[in-house]
Design brief:
By secondary structure, the chain is mainly alpha-helical. The chain is 67% helix and 0% strand.
């Protein structure tokens, strides 16, 4: 009679594989995915509101205006490179504001993701036992 292979022993010897490129979302837990979606929604709403406020004709004190400009500047830069042009400093149409808000959200999510990845790498290095 042929001996059955010990699958438990083989499973412990196998190296973990990275998921297939199309399955990165599958490796993310539902709680983590919800936090990222919540962060994206908050950033999108904040970006659109800040851009709409800056596009209004109201006078805004520099104490409020400057942080808002700093927050939406990445998205406004992408808007200017793609849809804007010379002599245009900010989007004023609803389409331009939506595009700038979406690009601003994507860029700030990228910054947030990179920060989390670097923090996790540093945490792993500090938590690893000394060799």
């Amino acid at each position: 009679m042929k001996a059955q292979p010990n699958y438990r022993l083989q499973a412990t010897r196998m190296k973990p594989r990275a998921p297939e490129p199309g399955r990165w979302a599958a490796c993310m837990s539902s709680v983590t995915r919800r936090w990222w979606l919540l962060a994206a929604a908050v950033l999108a709403i904040a970006s659109a509101a800040a851009l709409a406020l800056l596009a209004s004709a109201e006078v805004i004190p520099s104490v409020v205006r400057d942080p808002l400009l700093g927050f939406v500047h990445p998205g406004t830069t992408v808007w200017w490179l793609v849809l804007g042009g010379p002599f245009r400093s900010a989007p004023f149409s609803p389409t331009g504001i939506a595009f700038a808000a979406a690009s601003n959200t994507a860029l700030w999510l990228l910054v947030l993701w990179l920060t989390v990845a670097i923090a996790r790498a540093v945490w792993r290095m500090l938590a690893a036992p000394p060799s």
